[in-house]
Please model this.
Amino acid sequence: MTTNNPISKAQAPLLKEYQRSQETEHQLAENPRKTVLLLLQGAVDKGNLAKVCHQSNALVEKGFHLGRMTTILDALRDRLQFSKETPLAFDLEELYRYADQCIQESVFEKETFYLDSAVEILTELRDAWLEMMQQTGQLSDNA
Model:
């Protein structure tokens, strides 16, 4: 018996975006700072997509993007190294925690105040991280 599963076909475009490449993963492993930059960009992108879904009342899709944002924040937290020599890690943990709280609050909000707050925090972190990488020569100006 052959069954056509429309759900798997519907999910394919979403999953296609996340196909893994060994070459890309190797390059990112060699440059963990670029990985953080890409994670921050991904969180901002997912936040913006969640806002579009909120505005069009596509609540299931909004939830999907909010879940991705939370997953990305978890990945960013996992990269923090807490020690006396890295006080910035503690500050970043607080920002990530607050952004995550905003994401959780945004699930049921009628407006986008909390979602806007999370996206704003992550955008500012991404921009600061990008500027730091450019100033230290770890990333070219046009990358």
